[in-house]
């Protein structure tokens, strides 16, 4: 029943996570988080990294471990969360919505930063973070670094207030690695892996450097036409 009430979008467990494919993740740190002590203390976990590196997998797996440890959990995406709060605000029942969102011992917010939030939505998110501050744990996944959250929330002042509360008691994990989905496509041959003969990508520093060298070695012309 607790698993159903959590609204997980899929069944993901730590046993199924490929730590060897993501060497930037410390398995011991994940096992420590799976013990759920941080939830009891009302702390937060931020999983940061590019799309496809396993953030959602880990968030669901840690949520399942929290349920097994006896904690209530609710999973939602950032867009769904904000849309629900905006709807409640328009219907003058925001306090009721915030009270409901404050009840789970762990609230998982997935995909924060994939779409920028409007200023009003950012302020609603701030109210939620403030309501849960030091009383309920949050696990947030984002494809943006914390330093970029000013653009995510469209208001640097609100972003600073949100980050200040989330980082006060927190565990920040930054995942650096290749996307599982892209890796699978490369193995199947759908995507060609980059090779040395492919040349530098458009707009890269090396391309600009090559253009500069070529320009310096070109003979002077007898004029140009426009």
Describe the structure.
The chain has 226 residues and is α/β, with parallel strands linked by helices. It folds into two domains: 2-177, P-loop containing nucleotide triphosphate hydrolases (Rossmann fold, 3-Layer(aba) Sandwich); 181-215, no CATH class. The protein is built from eleven helices and five strands, in the order H-H-H-E-H-E-H-H-E-H-E-H-H-E-H-H. It has helices at 2-6, 27-34, 37-40, 55-68, 78-90, 94-102, 119-132, 149-152, 156-168, 180-188, 205-217, and strands at residues 44-48, 73-77, 106-112, 137-142, 170-174. A five-stranded parallel β-sheet has the order 2-3-4-1-5. The radius of gyration is 22 Å and the shape is globular. Mean pLDDT is 86; it is low at 199-219 and 221-226.
Short description:
The protein is α/β, with parallel strands linked by helices. 47% of the residues lie in helices and 12% in strands.
Task: Describe the protein's topology.
Layout: H1 2-6, H2 27-34, H3 37-40, E1 44-48, H4 55-68, E2 73-77, H5 78-90, H6 94-102, E3 106-112, H7 119-132, E4 137-142, H8 149-152, H9 156-168, E5 170-174, H10 180-188, H11 205-217
Parallel strand pairs: 1-4, 1-5, 2-3, 3-4
